[in-house]
Please model this.
Amino acid sequence: MKDDREYRSMELIAPEQTEERSYMVQGYASTFEPYTLFTAEDGTEYKEQILPTAFEEADLSDVVFRVDHTGRVYARSSAGTVNLWTDEHGLGQRADLSKTQKARELFEDIEAGNYPKMSFAFKVAADHFDKATHTRVIERIAKVYDVSPVSFPANPGTELCVSTRDWLNGVIEAEQAERLEEERRERQKQKIRILAEVH
Model:
């Protein structure tokens, strides 16, 4: 079965600063500003943008908080220990890591800087490609699976997941084919002009 989950790096996660340790960590799972996914050999930047309305119908009912998208679950939305919201900036998340010894140990690792970045896993419900700006526009997210502190955050330009890479390859191939077809038509027009001038 094909896994159609996609992964994106998140903004720096920050432990909440309070007088009494709260074991809360928060950050943005997604922002709504366009970002570069990949730069082609010809210098063309292929971008992605998640629309502010993309999460309106998303399934956020059971989002888990775990390390590197695998293994132990330290918090989850269905248990009330992961809270997600949207604002003008993006999809925010706050996780309560106070409930178990292992979760508190993870908080210590995050506070120590061992996990300076996060990533989130999601499934796209609807998207389109804006040819003018070379931007994939994600209109609707079907589900968010997890938010994860990661050892090495993925660089979208070099470590695209399979479904995103397949999509991007298709777009680049289509654009190259279109460009080659335009060049072929232009050469044909030139030949016709030359023949017309000769006769």
Notes: The first strand starts at residue 6 and ends at 10. The CA atoms of residues 51 and 82 lie 23 Å apart. Residues 157-162 have pLDDT under 50 and may be disordered.
